[in-house]
Amino acid sequence: MPLVRKCSRQALALLAAFMEQRRTWQHGYELSKATGLKSGTLYPILTRLSDQGFLDSRWEESEQPGRPPRHAYRLTANGLALARESMKVLAGSKSGLRPIKVGAQ
Amino acid sequence: MTLRAISQWLSRQLISAAMHVSPRERTEWAKAMSREVDEIPSAREALWWSLGCLQASCHERLKSMQPTNWWPVRWAMALWIALLAIETLFSAGSSLTYKLGLFTERFPFPRNVQLLEVTPLWEPMLALVSGVVFLLAIVLILKRSRIAFGAVAAPFAITLLLFAVRLSRPESGDLEALSIAYQKSHYALIWPMLGLAITILICLALWQDRHASAAR
User: pTM of this prediction?
Assistant: First the structure.
């Protein structure tokens, strides 16, 4: 509970996006699309979650030939626990998780 | 040059600036942000993405810039606290000397000073403790200890409390003196306010340093 209280609305949206595809490594642009977060907001949250041990990251070869590798992210076991806890709290709250912008999945 | 080409050029410049601004320990993240630009189909969207990257890099740079990392700042902070320690110890020492009647043979102090007569003994004793803790804080600041914040904040709070208590006593005449000074010039209170602000800023810097050292 205390961990969830510290999470911003944007961080919760990001955790929700990770929870939707918990086993898949996801890229920054996809996460931005899924959450509606701009890169200037998304990356500080990603770095913070990574620093706190909630996020794993690795370099992956791009699907397009000739393009440089991309950074991919996935929740760690602690991250999954945090995301589950936050989803539980959100489900119990009146407002729930509102999308960051119209059109965000 | 088409609008798309201009957008792409601008985007590249912004990414380059973001990479430059980003602190060394965040280079990998700056690279990660910049690599995503290649995957964005729309030039306009890529431009906004790059702008966000620059914003994130600036954010990280500001976070990594801790004033206490610089030794001249630490020494300046220690010097200020030393001044506070001297002032507190001098005030406590003179009050205690009067209250306890010490050194009266060598230094004939005036008797029946109204303010000191009504001041209970615990006040200069507390001020003395504050002064000693301020002295300890100097060492802790220079050594970048995590408890430096407490060693400054606690005696500072006590000093403020003692000042408020003294101000509430009509014998002190402090309120009248402040009022007269303010009437003479509205800027007269700038110096005490500035002193207060400097000490508060030092406390904030030490608080931030405490959290940063916990994260390290």
Answer: 0.56
